[in-house]
Specification:
68 residues; mainly alpha; 1 helix; 46% helix; 0% strand; elongated
């Protein structure tokens, strides 16, 4: 069983290293304060054209989105 124990220990260490890298990436993302690449307000999106969510099966065809 010692060989399987060694393999599982290596996997555990690998998972720990991956978790530490992930946490460092998350912390760096919060600290860096970079400018967003995408505009979060998308008024041209079809979801924002309705005052309320449409009812299920309310369209016969997929609505077209056009720029005015």
């Amino acid at each position: 069983y010692s060989s399987w124990n060694m393999i599982s220990s290596l996997g555990s260490y690998l998972s720990l290293i991956a978790l530490m890298i992930f946490i460092m990436m998350i912390l760096e993302a919060f600290v860096s304060k970079r400018i967003s690449m995408f505009n979060m307000s998308m008024p041209s999106s079809i979801e924002w054209q309705h005052p309320l969510p449409p009812a299920d099966h309310s369209y016969d065809d997929t609505p077209l989105l056009t720029n005015y």
